[in-house]
Write a structure and sequence with these properties.
By secondary structure, the chain is α/β, with parallel strands linked by helices. It is built from 13 helices and 16 strands. The chain is 33% helix and 27% strand. The strands form three sheets. Strands 1, 2, 3, 4, 5, 6 and 7 form a seven-stranded antiparallel beta sheet that branches. A seven-stranded mixed beta sheet has the order 10-9-11-12-8-13-16, sandwiched between helices.
């Protein structure tokens, strides 16, 4: 059998059909990722739904492992003839409103591929972010500033990119020049210039080039070194609005992180418009969630230092779920804490009484728990 014929058989059905079925099934259950994992005995296909890995959806036996992986690589714009090397790509899905961000990694038992599902029709705005009105108001205030720095932190998969793009969605793009530096580009937004940062080029080099493009607003995927931090704050001081992310556990640590990257006290106080940190928490299914048990309420109360006496709708998740949900969950909600520019100097000066600060993660989670939107135990996990 010729090499061409073997290759043709690899990328023909039923392997392409299985790949397409996996994408359709993942889309149906609102999965964020499809994991195609090479194992000793073949391939496991799993989904991540609302932040949680699910049991194996389907398996491919060892005999058909290479053919299936080749079919997936062909369908997702990965190099089929290359092995033993990490790859990234992007593709759309015919018939579905999806783009896929694709990552391939060689492992002990073969190539593992992760597909991130991205809604290609999604429109971004703070009103669609599902956060309280007071948080929307404070975020809008920051994004409407003519210049300054807005920083968002949180673990991987906590919705930072969605929040940043929701902020961009509030800007009149017809009257502003907006450039993003991303690694990689996830969502495509009309009316802005999006740049994928080459792995061989640092964010600082890319940012230096962007500043020569006469931008009004710049989104930098991440501030991870001293040079990028200095350039971002210098850009803010010269009239640009800069949005970015940093590695930090909470809004207060965002400021510490920027200090550790060499930005001085005066520059932070003058230019930092908002420091935010966020998490994503499962949104309860209204059809099957249950009243919270007293022991859960007491434990959450101890952790939060808060009594739930005035909350009469505390709920917990029904793990078994119902026909209306996936395991008792119907989505995820962002929990955002923030420090405004009015708080920055107090944090930098390390004042002991910080009770006046804008909003913290615990309080933001308490608000959602008291409304019955999330499991009261999330107060324990987030705090």
């Amino acid at each position: 059998m010729s090499r061409f014929r073997r290759f043709t058989q690899m990328i023909n059905s039923p392997f392409v059909e299985l790949y397409q079925s996996a994408v359709r099934a993942a889309f149906k259950v609102n999965a964020s990722d499809i994991h195609i994992e090479a194992t000793r005995t073949g391939v496991d296909i799993r989904f991540r739904v609302y932040g949680e890995m699910q049991p194996v959806w389907k398996t491919v036996d060892l005999e058909h492992k290479a053919s299936f992986l080749a079919a997936v690589k062909a369908a997702t714009n990965l190099e089929i003839g290359v092995s033993g090397k990490a790859q990234d790509s992007r593709c759309n899905v015919p018939g579905l409103p999806l783009d896929l961000r694709v990552s391939l990694l060689p492992t002990l038992f073969g190539e593992t591929i992760v597909l991130r599902l991205l809604d290609s029709t999604r429109e971004f705005s703070l009103s669609q972010l599902q956060v309280p009105s007071y948080t929307v108001k404070r975020l809008r205030r920051a994004i409407n500033e003519p210049n300054g720095v807005v920083l968002v932190s949180g673990p991987t998969g906590s919705g930072k990119t969605t929040t940043l793009f929701s902020l961009l969605g509030e800007i009149d793009r017809s009257r502003k020049k907006i450039i993003t530096l991303e690694d990689p580009v996830e969502y495509v937004m009309p009316g802005i210039s999006q740049v994928r940062v080459n792995p061989k080029v640092s964010f600082s080099d890319a940012l230096r080039a962007v500043l020569r493009q006469d931008p009004d607003v710049i989104l930098v995927g991440e501030i991870r070194d001293e040079e990028t931090a200095a350039l971002a704050f210098r850009a803010a001081a010269t009239g640009h609005l800069v949005l970015s992310t940093v590695h930090a556990n909470n809004a207060r640590e965002v400021i510490s992180r920027i200090q550790n990257l060499g930005v001085d006290h005066d520059s932070i106080c003058s230019n930092l418009r908002l420091s935010a940190a966020q998490r994503l928490v499962p949104k309860l299914c209204s059809h099957c969630s249950m009243p919270a048990h007293e022991e859960f309420i007491e434990e959450a109360s101890k952790v939060a230092g808060f009594t739930f006496d005035e909350c009469d709708n505390l709920r917990i998740r029904c793990d078994g779920g119902c026909p209306h949900c996936e395991g008792g969950v119907v989505g995820r909600l962002p929990v955002i804490e923030y420090l405004g520019d009015e708080d920055v100097e107090a944090v930098i000066n390390d004042e002991e009484d910080l009770s006046f600060l804008s909003l913290n993660l615990t309080n933001a989670t308490l608000d959602l728990a008291c409304e019955g939107l999330i499991d009261v135990r999330e107060v324990i996990y987030v705090s």
